[in-house]
Amino acid sequence: MPRDPVCGMIVDKDKAIKRKIGDREYYFCSETCARTYEAPEQELRSMKRRVTLALLGAVSVAALRVLAMLGLVVAFMTLEFAGVSVWELAFFVISAPIVWIAGWSIHYGAYKALKTRNINMDVLISTGTLAGWFYGTISTFFPTLAPGGHGYFEIAIGILAFVLLGKFIEETIRRRSAAAIRQLLELQPTIARVLKDGNEVEAPIDDVQVGDILIVKPGEKIPTDGKVISGYSSVDEKILTGESIPVEKSVGSEVIGATINKNGLLKIEATKVGTNTALMQIVSLVEEAQASSAPVQKLADRVVSYFVPIVFTAAVVAFTYWFFTTNFSTAFLVLLAILLIACPCALGIATPAAILAGVGKGAEYGILLRGGEYVEKARKLHTIVFDKTGTLTKGEPMVTDIIAYGGYKKEDVLQAAASAEKGSEHPLAEAIVKTVGNSNIPDAEAFEAIPGHGVKAKYEDKQILLGNRKLMKDNNVSIETTEKSLQELEEQGKTAMILAINGKAAGIIAAMDTPKENAATAIKRLKSMGLEVAMLTGDNERTAKTIATQLGIDTVIANVLPWEKVDAIKKLQAEGKVVAMVGDGVNDAPALAQSDVGIAIGSGTDIAKETGGIVLIKDDLRDVALGIELSQATMKKIKQNLFWAFIYNTISIPIAAANLLNPVIAAAAMAMSSLFVVSNSALLKRLKLKT
Hints:
Strand content: 15-25%
Number of helices: 26
Radius of gyration: 33 Å
Helix content: 40-55%
Distance between the termini: 46 Å
Structural class: alpha+beta
């Protein structure tokens, strides 16, 4: 059975609402979810208008009450029109559009719930709101039937303003799911150059079939997964694999769709298309993980499913008792008091109010909390898994070692290498040039790139070779004196390049992707919190262990392809561990979504940030620990909010049933419950995190 990608509800394929986006078909439980997925901004704007209307109404009635308290509208309050108080009529006019326009989605949700014999929070909110509003309406137009009905319009407006604001906050968080998957889909090229009958033609990506021959020019994205059958180039796979150094591709090499061809013309044979490509596998994994249920977001509804029937039963029993022992008016007031005191508007905003306060506090430290489910799980974490490239490391190679031979100085070695590499776009070349500074590098003569081996150049009448052992061997350069240093550098996970001048070894330049400045401090802090720390990477094990040793990480999971990172997370979860994943790239998106708590680095791709439950706005790994501490503090507030919301309600229900609580006081108690939730959440502003 498919899942609704917005709310996670399992739906019937035959009865569900269908939408085709790209070459995939999606199933939704309602038009609202379909609209949210297709156009989240438009749906959010519509909800924002409803919230604005409710809040304007709340401000308006509050202003009128203040004017009345100050005695500025005494004459107006005594006016009547056709036997109806103009003062109460003004409240009726203000409340009607709020109840029936702003609150329509809640009333409709209650109708749909009752139609399917399901009692949810919408039912109780709608019942309490409409009961108060109708009582106020009857009191305004037929005061003898409903005496003492003053203030019920404000009650209805207040309830809706609180609840709609809470729903708006939740929807702001939920809409990210659709955005993340849409951005993944946008990575794929829409057009491919297909070779047909010897002619190069452009065709929509949906028309590409397995076995088609595709032409990919320098700077273009590779349309789909395939195998190189002609040409040589380096391909930037960072967007999917997260690794910073482009991978050299030649005949027989496999290529991944959506990666970027850097500098050579490639002819590839399509081996996977449509939903079978690596990119679409990542999309599927993100969808699967994001559509799973969120315990803390559904907590209130689960409790309300039992709470609401009890409230209605108590209200009916109390109404019946007072109807037969007194009169209808007394019985109705008791009924209304019970419904209003039990109105779960505080429950409705308990989680989003705390999250909103947590988000505000987090912004001060550069931390963004994106949902209650992540907050709940963060306090139970056992293991933190870090992606390597771009997360623990800087994401680009840097020169780490310069060794000189044959009487040359390190400065001579670096200058000659920079001159030879000045015209190259290879990341290793860029690292060398960056070290020297482009303005200080003279142009080399007769530059020649040798694919897979290195470069040749002429510099100040000297013949320069810079590359690997094979380049030196092909040019009869002896490297016996460099071999020991080469092996030592390679054992450290570094890429070592040999420099030869006029046929003799002159030096070695080594480069590697180095750790970020605060990475080691961040790992130490997490370990002090009792958390297990692991590193997950697509890089080779030797390089991975070198970085891990520098940072104090004991567990290393290397040689992992993007779509295999999810399996690594699942394996840890199968051991009973609650896992957080920290990453920054598209390749991390499925793992971020699969993990119990995804922590995305703000300097990374938007997709990683969209799938992260906690986003670190600054590129500072020390904020991982702060994010966990903030989540724990926020979860504590959520629990306090839920507890006090129930206490306010459950203590007052017996009092209301005993006819000891006027509906107005009941509404005030309800308002106090909501006020407590908001005020308690606001206390998070006083939280001091250890930086």
